[in-house]
């Protein structure tokens, strides 16, 4: 089996989109992460879901659990309304990172090895021009291996 | 809202269970990770899905993408039949790691901050004795915040 056999269509965002939108896109799509593309639909970044969440949770709360605990309940449910117009580009990691991608003809072992090595539950599948074709999720990979790989 | 409001029941494994079983439990439950418990149902480890996959993909393939690419397709679909009887304990990280847990009365902001800081799409919810009550998934957290948090 190849990556293209189990890839699914995924909604995408660009670095110009608001973080609040990115989080909502991921929530509605029920994906374990998000593919950020450039203007030519080529993956620029593939973010695991916890990284997307990191964009939305103010750094202070991440670094200091006691601070997060101190926020009253009423406010705690609305913390990300403070995001305002921050974009994905504003919040994404500064150092250039190669996006987590494979070609359509990659085997499931290649995809699994990449997910495991880069800690990414989402891998973008691209064509020979680097344009996004779809994405493989960890869940779909494992299910495919279990169903078709004749696991004992 | 509290962690206990959005937690779900989750199947668990122990360090004595085979890795192959752990992967299948995660696949069938469709969770983004796995809670490993001790003999008193207290979380010992909370593993993100990519970490569970790391247990199953031989290290050589993770470190050398060219090696993974060199495996023929027939073999690539069956790579984890080589796991044999390896247990979760055999493969799990050696250095002691505090399991990713919160108490039932934690706010969603606390859970979000923990997920973001520890890169874990799964957080175990425990009672005052540290016994597992359930778990919160990243997807459920974000959906709850979007639906109940009145995101603009």
From TrEMBL, chains A, B:
Residues 94-152 form the CBS domain. Pfam families: CBS (PF00571). Keywords: CBS domain. The keyword Disulfide bond does not apply. PANTHER family: CBS DOMAIN-CONTAINING PROTEIN, CBS DOMAIN-CONTAINING PROTEIN CBSX3, MITOCHONDRIAL. This is CBS domain-containing protein. It comes from Saccharothrix syringae.
